[in-house]
Amino acid sequence: MSHSTSQPSRQTAVLEPEQWVDAYGDYLFRYAVSRLRNAGDAEEVVQETLLAGIANHQQFVGNGTQIGWLLGILKRKIIDHLRDRSKRQFQTANDDFDPTALLFDENGQWKAGSLPTIAPDKEFELKELWGLVQDCLKSLPAKHADVFVLSVMEGMEVPEICKELEITSSNLWVRLHRARLGLAKCVGSKGFFDDEGGAGQ
Predict the structure, then answer these.
(1) Which of 30, 41, 95, 174 is the most exposed place for a label (fewest CB within 10 A)?
(2) How many other CB atoms sit within 10 Å of the CB of residue 129?
(3) In this predicted model, what pLDDT tens digit does every residue of 31-52 receive, in sequence order?
(4) Could you say which of 69, 92, 115 is where a domain stops?
(5) Which residues form the signal peptide (predicted)?
(6) For residue 170, is it within any domain?
(7) CA geometry: angle at 68 spanning 75 and 34, to 5°?
(8) How far apart are CA 197 and CA 192, in angstroms?
(9) pLDDT tens-digit map of 5-33
(10) Residue 4 covered by a domain
(11) Whole-angstrom Cα distance, residue 80 to residue 45?
(12) pLDDT band at 74 (very low <50, low <70, confident <90, very high)
C-alpha cells in the first residue's frame, strides 16, 4: 500500500533533465520525507535519484510517465538507504528502547490508559489517522519505523524486506510488532481514539 501526495500535473510530459528539479523536485522530496522521516536523508536520496536519472535518461523510452520512471528510481534509492541504515545500526547502535514497556507493566498487564495495537485493516482508513501515524513514525527507533514503512507503506513482501535489510523473518516480525505498539501508544496519546477504541471527533 502506498500513501503519497498527487503526482505533478504534467504527468505525460517528457522533459529535459535540466527541467526535472523544477517540475518534479518537490514531489520526489515529499515522497522521500514520508518514507525516511528525515529531510536531510530525503534530500540526499532525491539528489541521487536525479543524478541516476540524468546518467540513464536515454533508457526512458516512453513506457509510462517520466515522473513514474523517476519515482521507481527513488524507491530503489530509499530501499538502499534503509538497508545501509540498518547495517549501521546493527554495527554501532545500542538501542534500549522497548515500546512494549509503554503499554505493559512488569507483570505483562495493560497499563491504565494504554491502548491495544491498531487493527491492520483500520490503520489508514481515515486521513486524520494517517497523518498521525506519519508524525508518530518519527518518534520510533529507526529500525522499527523502517520495517513498517517497507511493509505497510511500500507493500513489500516479507522475504523481500528480509533480503534488503539482511534480517531474519522472526526479527522482522518483532520489529513490526514493536512498531505497531509504539504507534498505537503515540496515536492514542494524541487523543485520536475514544474510550471504546473508535475514532475521536
Answers:
(1) 95
(2) 20
(3) 999 898 888 889 999 999 999 9
(4) 92
(5) none
(6) yes
(7) 45
(8) 9
(9) 556 554 556 888 888 988 999 999 999 99
(10) no
(11) 9
(12) very high
